[in-house]
Each structure stands twice: as structure tokens, then as C-alpha cells.
Specification:
alpha+beta; seven-stranded mixed β-sheet; 7 helices; about 25% helix; disordered C terminus
Length: about 250
């Protein structure tokens, strides 16, 4: 079936056709069958008087980021923002992080940053419910340790070794963790993450092959740049990739 108009016009048409007393949210996605490219819009009635349309650009707007919900699913709307009205020190590359995701991301990021600064080694942390299940450094791994951490079949870079050690410290507690890396996520680390169950990752960058892995599209990904200081304040309060600006 051919649909006239662009995704925004289609989304507005569908939203306006829904019963105003019962509509809560709407998800629409256009897929280009020739290129495989996609466009997504999400409308949520809780975002002010007019339905708020989440576009990829608005999801990473300069001074605030709307969250799926707060500490609990019934706490809507919620957002993070800078108290001074300035730009957020993070960039969301994939997914929609929630309140708890950001608590895990920011606490784990500070931990790996301090570990790397203190030792001069790559550092990684596996975080769950604002607690470190396993912070580790990127030291070489022997054959026995690789087998114990279930990575004996992988090529590991120093930062991949750091996360393999962190994840292997307490694998049961690390199930569905948040990952923090002190160095850019490379291909070796991405391949390791692709077969683990993790909510998301925060890193200072992503090398080619280190982000956008088709197997990892459910992960929330955050990225941290190098030109700002401070962390966002949280109000109200999905997983993804975060970039954090130092």
C-alpha cells in the first residue's frame, strides 16, 4: 500500500485519528525497501499540551533529553537537563536510556575514568543497579582466565580484556549490566558485547566496527566527548550508547 506524504504527515494523521481519551503513545517507522534506511517517530501524550514527536535530532537536543520514564514506569514525563540551561555533556547514539540507565552510566563512567587515571591502563566496569559488579583493568589474560570468562575464542584488545575481566568477576550479577569503558569501544569489544546481555554502554568514542553492530541494536549507546565538564541533573526519573563530554 502506498502512503502519501512524509513520515511526519503520516504520524500526525494516525495520531489525530485515535480516540483522544484512550491514546497514550504512537510508534511509526518508515523503511526504504531499496536502501534499508529507516525513519522513526514516537508520539507521547504526556509531553505537554501537544503530542511530543521524538525525532533523532530531538532525542539528542542540546539542553535536555526526554526519558521513557523515571524511576518507575508510572512516572511520566521525565527528563535530564543542565541546571544552567547549557548543553548536555552526553550524546545518545542508539536507543532511549531511562533514569536508572543514566545513574548507572554516570556512576560507572566516573569509576572507569578514575581507574584509568590512577593506573594509566584501560579500564572497564560492569554496573548493575548503581553498583559495580566488576571494575577491572585491561591487563593480558592467560588461557585459563579466558576460558573462565568465556572469551577464549575471541581476539581481545586491551579495552576488551578490561571488560572481559569486569564481566567475568560476577557473571550472574552482570547479567543485563551497564558497560563503561575508559577508552573508545573498538571492534573487539563490540564483538564481545554482541553476545552478552547488556542494557547499554558509555564510552568516550566508538571506532569503526565498535558501534552500530546489527546484533547490538537493542543496546543503548552513549558517547562522551572531550570538551565539557559536569553531569546533567535528573528530573522525574531504554537502553542505548552514551557519549560523555569531559
Amino acid at each position: 500500500m502506498e502512503i502519501a506524504g512524509d513520515i511526519d504527515a503520516f504520524t500526525e494523521t494516525v495520531w489525530n485519528s485515535l480516540d483522544t481519551d484512550n491514546r497514550v503513545s504512537l510508534f511509526t517507522r518508515f523503511i526504504d525497501l531499496k536502501t534499508g534506511g529507516t525513519k522513526t517517530r514516537i508520539v507521547n501524550k504526556h509531553e505537554g499540551l501537544m503530542p511530543f514527536v521524538y525525532t533523532p535530532e530531538r532525542m539528542t537536543c542540546m539542553n535536555e533529553l526526554l526519558l521513557k520514564y523515571g524511576c518507575n514506569p508510572n512516572q511520566k514525563p521525565s527528563r535530564i537537563f543542565m541546571k544552567d540551561g547549557g548543553a548536555l555533556p552526553i550524546e545518545v547514539l542508539n536507543g532511549r536510556p531511562g533514569y536508572i540507565n543514566f545513574l548507572d552510566a554516570f556512576n560507572s563512567w566516573q569509576l572507569v575514568r578514575e581507574l584509568a587515571a590512577a593506573t594509566g591502563l584501560p579500564a572497564a566496569a560492569s554496573f548493575k543497579h548503581v553498583s559495580a559488579a566488576g571494575p577491572r583493568w585491561g591487563l593480558p589474560m592467560g588461557d585459563e582466565l579466558k576460558r573462565a570468562c568465556f572469551v577464549d575464542d575471541l581476539e581481545l584488545s586491551p579495552i576488551a580484556c578490561a571488560y572481559a575481566r569486569a564481566r567475568g568477576a560476577d557473571r550472574m550479577s552482570s547479567y543485563g549490566d551497564w558497560v563503561a569503558l575508559s577508552e573508545p569501544c573498538d571492534k573487539e569489544t563490540a564483538l564481545l558485547l554482541a553476545r552478552e546481555v547488556s542494557d547499554g554502554i558509555i564510552a568516550p568514542g566508538y571506532t569503526p566496527g565498535g558501534v552500530g553492530n546489527p546484533q547490538n541494536q537493542a543496546q543503548r549507546q552513549l558517547q562522551c566527548g572531550q570538551n565539557r565538564s559536569g553531569l546533567p541533573a535528573c528530573s522525574g526519573g531504554t537502553e542505548g550508547c552514551l557519549r560523555h563530554h569531559l
